[in-house]
Structure formats: C-alpha cells, structure tokens
Amino acid sequence: MKCSEFKECVCEIVDKRLPEEQTNELMQHAQVCPHCNFEFTSMQATKTIVGEKLHRQSVPSEVYYSIINATLDSADGSWFRKLFGFKLNPAIALVAFAFIAVGIYSMFVPQKRGMPEEANIISQSLKNYQAVISGSIKPQLISTEDAVRTFLAKEVGFDVNVPKMKGCSSCSGVLSDFNGIKLAHVVYKVDEKNIIYIYQASMDDAMDGSTIGLPEEAREELKRTDWYVRELTDKTTIVIWRYKNTLCSAVSGMDKDQMIALLTDKELK
Fold it and tell me: What's the whole-model pTM score?
C-alpha cells in the first residue's frame, strides 16, 4: 500500500467511517510506516482534545464529505505552495488548525473547574454526620451549650454557634483542621433516634472557595437569603445558614421544618 492511499483515508479511520476490513488493512500499513503512524496518532489526539472542549453535533454524511473534499481541494491550491514552497498535507493541516482553534477557544471561553469533593462543605458535612453516627468522630468535650461554645471559641477565629435546643439530651464539641482552615463541630443528641451535627467555619473562608467552598447553587442562595435548605433522597436534611461571621452547616435525619425550628428557637431570641 502507498502512503498516499493511507493519507486519503486517515480522517475516515479516526472517525470510524470505513468498513472493518478496510480499516484493518490501512492500520497494518500504519504499523510499519512511521510517517503514516504519526499522522494517525496526531489525528486521533486532535479528535480527543477537540471532543473534550467542544460539543459535537452530527451532520448528514453528504455535508461531512463535501467539507472534507473542499478542504482537500483548497490544500492542493497554489497559494500555500507559493508562500511556503511545498504542498500542504491535509492531515497535518487539520491537526494544526484544531490545536489553534482549541487554543483560541480556551482563551476566550471561561473553563469551569469543578470543586474537589473533599473541599466541598456539603460533602464534608454529610461525611462527618455519618462518621458521628458510626462513632468514627468522637467528642472532645461533652457538656452544656455554653461550655461547648467556650471550648470551641478559644481555638477558632469566628463566632461559634451553639444554640440551646429544646429536648436535647447532650451537647458535644470537636475541633479540627482542614488544610490550614480551622473548623468547629457541634453534635446534639435530640432523642434516641435523632442527632443534629453542625459543621462551622469562617464565612470568609467558605465563600472564598480556595480551600473549602460550596457548590454554586448553594453559594447564590446563601447570598440572597442567608439560608440554604435541602432534603436529600435518603431522608437526610442539610441546612446551611449565616451566623454573624460564621457559616453553619447542619445535618440530621429529621424533617427540615422540625430541624429549623430547633436550630432557631433560642438563637434568635
């Protein structure tokens, strides 16, 4: 097989538009020809990069082939040869064009980066709640609400919120550190079945988002109303709110109305 035959079909190979028998024959040539193998791997890499950056829309086959033919025709024109002194290889041209297009796209279109799961305050709160239930997180102090507040407040740079709850049988506190961010944790045993766990951090650290943070939906709702409440499918409720200069994130198996009533009963008086 001649290299020219492979080069004419390399786009179709990458896009898997050829019969399997023909593709195998062409790829056998690429395995022994370093030049054709380079063209194939370059095209394949380009398709991967473009696919990660842009959403592809299917077009009719006749449109696809008319574009390819027009590209090949223009590559054979005299302008490129006059300018650079040699004929432009269509496959290499497509690779170069794709890299340039992706580069321009990246410059002008903001790329959203997802928050690492371990830095997500909601994820941290839910995991810590499960750890409290399982006994993996053990209290450092079990006492009255005032004593727990005093214990936690000595070590953190924000106002610790330890509201007094009706019917609460115990209150405990835990201090921790996440990548240099000081955190306070309060756990209430409400009855034999329910506990309320409250994760607390500096509001500035939480809204800055560089070390810990919230999903965009929670951030926006918190900015508008100072509250964010969600009942999850496993019957767990998470309530996030602003308390002075502190972000509080409470988790419980209670319904949201009962939970909010307990959290705000004494705190707002």
Answer: 0.58
